[in-house]
Specification:
The protein is an alpha/beta fold. The radius of gyration is 26 Å and the shape is globular.
Length: 656
Amino acid sequence: MQPEQQPADATDPAALHPNWVADDHLINLLRHNAREHGDEIAMREREYGIWQEYTWKDYLDRVLCFAAGLDALGVKPEDNILVIGDNRPGLYFGMVGAVALRAVPSPAYPDTTPEEIAGHMEREGIRFALAEDQEQVDKLMGIRANGYDALQQIIYDDPRGLAGKEPAGVVAFNDIVERGRERLRERPGLEDDILGRASVHDIAVLLHSSGTTGAPKGVPLKHGHVLSGVRNAAAAGYFREGEVHMAYLPMAWVGDFIFSIGAALALRFTVNIPERQETALHDLREIAPTLYFSSPRAWSNMLTRIQVGIDESTLFKRMLYELFMPFAVELERRRLDGEQPTALQRFWRGLGEILVYGPIKDQLGLARVERPYTAGEAIGEDVFLYFRALGLNLRQFYGQTENCALACAQDPDTIKLHTVGKPFPGVEIKLDDQGEILIRGDNVFDGYYQNPKSTAETLQDGWLHTGDAGYLEEDGQVVVLGRVSEVVYTAAGERFIPTYIENRLKFSQYIKDVCILGQDRDSLAALVAIDMSAVGHWAEENNIPYTSFADLSQKPAVYELIQGVIEHVNGVLPDGLQIRRFVNLHKEFDPDDGEVTRTRKLRRSVIDAHYAPIIDALYDGSESVDYEAQITYETGESGVLKRHLTVADVPPAAEK
């Protein structure tokens, strides 16, 4: 740990970050890349099956022209500009163009409801919006028609359904670019003017917290925060220059901005954008990235795809797989425990690379990946070991939006399954008296957007209070247990964190979501949402017919399957904190119903209200419950959905 520092003067940006240099910012990095590496490919997008390429010169040209066009529209410094849609070059160029004007891109998830978007726009005084396509434009037009008349201009990227039929106040991205290009021709000094406006202390992006306990909080990240985070990670070997990266995660997520813009500009990544979200896994094989990030759930889904493919392959391939794959998993388990492979094991592993492991990685598009990562929640041990056994150096990292998602990561040589690794260079981590993880570094933000109360609670004496409970091991590795705010007690006074147990249950491919109950109760219980894909495949393999999610979830065999998962987790939980009863829900938790956030974090108060009759049945000894849910159809009409759900007991360990 470094010596304690005195809090800086929050009114003086330079005093807050004395190590930052004023002209060290994203726009200068883009200009440098265009001048020194102008003909190298900066971004590629697959469109209509053909890869469209943009060099660094093209990148700078699009950014400058768009910025000049926005300037003509009246965009001012600190204007917040809504960005909504799936990953597209135009949206990335547009965000960086806004940043050049010292305006602030404020991305939203593409599936955000109009009501949520309207709240977002009201809170941030949005006057300009950059939208991907007609769907998003229609959403914004509806919000404007419903009384939000501050929205002056909607700029769209995809011309399908809009070109030549634009309503008032709607204009094409390419039209803004061409207007800007004309302005740059007419005013020779404008290019240098635009390139010189930004500062390391300007906000580069306005991201948002998940909003699990209320309206999302705005998280402004400055150029210096982003570049400090990227360079800290690069110093730890997390990023390298010239990475080939696939941009497919939501643009509103901090990781996408850090990877696809921050690190891409600082380290000259080649950013590849799939044609559609639905084709991302197919396009991944053609992209063949060197850097790949995916959530634990996505890694688990990928494993399910592999297993389904093996089941459907030839007998010879299945035999090879069964011969080599369990060997590799066990070899990796022992290696992580410190055992060195014998010469024979290394030979067998090399043969397996030729016959099994290499072909699987090639089929997935991961043959060239040198730095695969996962984060967001704990990853299942079986999933983690499997991909490492394939030869992928899969590692977990840890961070929040407030620290640019880059706080610490597992070192490739000292990986422990239960930790998230050590802090990056330039990042300090300590624990307070309550076991909360505190972080300090130049990658930590300076405060929430127009929210001094939350800022004062989160930033204290120069330390970011993460809200996560955890502990430090003797070698400095960090263990994250869950949210401090989610520490609760049973009626008997047993302390537990529901998310810790939920994450262990979600290690199973058969459980998509789960909510653990038990606060002020005599025992723990669970609301389970099965994974339709994995359980459906399992049911087909076991000749269990079903007609729908609700029907499948209530099959006795599926209850036995989920009970087995719960019993396995109960085996590692202390006495008094084992799950005694559970219900398989008839549906997934739905962000449109407010039950989870867009990043699938539980909103427990909403779940408690929505499923109150089911929760009562879990604790009053009922063997089943008839549940009625109010639903609203696309026509606007409402109705009642009735479901008969089984309530199952989980026997104590002594009875198993």
